[in-house]
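TICKET: design request
STATUS: open
ATTACHED STRUCTURE:
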């Protein structure tokens, strides 16, 4: 069966055993870099505040890079789990424009939850601003996450 080819690509690699890689393998690896680049763009965003950190030793820079890499990994795993849960249940959530999507970014979900607050009044914990839309999103996360929002 012929493949649907959308365009032409110039492929180059520094892999010395190039005969072990097919053109499709090289193209797939190249396209896979997009998610990695998107992740590093996320870390460089002013909202992440890494630009305000001043480090004066190589060890501290290396430590920060490791922590940021770990944060990016946790973020990627959370986003993947959310998308898999949506796919498993054949559901969607609203994106920034109010349109349904099965592939939301975790950053968008974080922004949706920014106005939620934990209040403690007379030793009673309450969550404020937990709307129906936010409860809908929370059902696609695990029980520990729902427990955090006092839903379990």
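STATUS: resolved
RESOLUTION: sequence designed for all positions
ATTACHED SEQUENCE:
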């Amino acid at each position: 069966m012929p493949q649907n080819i959308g365009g032409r690509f110039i492929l180059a690699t520094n892999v010395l055993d190039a005969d072990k890689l097919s053109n499709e393998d090289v193209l797939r690896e190249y396209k896979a870099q997009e998610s990695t680049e998107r992740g590093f763009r996320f870390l460089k965003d002013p909202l992440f505040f890494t630009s305000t950190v001043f480090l004066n030793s190589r060890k501290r820079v290396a430590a920060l890079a490791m922590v940021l890499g770990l944060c990016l990994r946790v973020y990627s795993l959370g986003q993947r789990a959310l998308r898999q849960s949506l796919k498993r249940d054949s559901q969607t959530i609203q994106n920034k424009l109010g349109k349904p999507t099965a592939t939301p970014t975790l950053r968008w979900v974080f922004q949706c939850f920014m106005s939620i607050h934990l209040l403690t009044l007379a030793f009673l914990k309450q969550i404020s601003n937990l709307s129906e839309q936010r409860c809908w999103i929370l059902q696609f996360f695990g029980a520990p996450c729902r427990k955090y929002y006092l839903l379990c």
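CLOSING REMARK: Residues 15 and 21 are 8 Å apart (CA to CA). The mean pLDDT is 83.
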